[in-house]
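Bug #77: duplicate submission created two jobs. Keeping one. Sequence:
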Amino acid sequence: MERKDLRMGAEHTLAARDVRLGYDGREVVSGLSLDIPPGAITMIVGPNACGKSTLLRSMARLLAPSSGSVLLDGRSIQEMPTKEVASVLGILPQSPVAPDGITVSDLVGRGRYPHQGWFRRWTAEDDTAVARALLATDVLELAGRPVDELSGGQRQRVWIAMALSQRTDILLLDEPTTFLDISHQLDVLDLLTDLNREYGTTIAVVLHDLNLACRYADQLVAMKDGRIVAEGAPTEIVTAELVTEVFGMRCSVAEDPASGTPMIVPIGRHHITPVQA
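Kept job's structure:
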């Protein structure tokens, strides 16, 4: 099935307009504007403390800008009803906290709350959404376990399952592969790609691994010091010069043999830059 047939996420738009963001009087993001392409996967990368997680929090309405605005379908997200936002936009923050003693199935089921109305009860559709999310993230066998008894990697997959069960047209994830081994990192990113291709879900991810970000992104956003240094398709913007500017790291950029996307090869102080043929 071609992606254009089910581009439901493309019905909604999300953008930041000249936002200023910070904590405790310290400004982290200064006058930044960004459009999240509808129906695409956007990866946001940059060094620690550059403002990428702060930006994602503001776009999920978890942090109000000191000036500027975040627009969901052209409306200020801060002025929209919470339930209306939650029915369109899902967020997996960097360090979510589960209630004490809650089981995996109950936590994942909470992703269905935005779909519940005053007179709507739990339905077979909710059961199906939860079961599919548990299966997709490989935690179905953990359904009856308390979340606080799980390993860090297991817990992270449960949180991802909760975000998936919400079935929103826009999904924001902050470092979703934290605590996961490389196999499960690929599983999660493949799963997000499947969601995007099958349903047209608009996805924005803050990711630490630059090579994986290049491999999975339709659009890459590189940030430094609270500003956007470059944005566009990875093959169009990623160069050794860009990586050095953003991360302060010498590198060589080659072609990823698995995907044809840019692959960054770091060069440490004790290594010599390969001689080009």
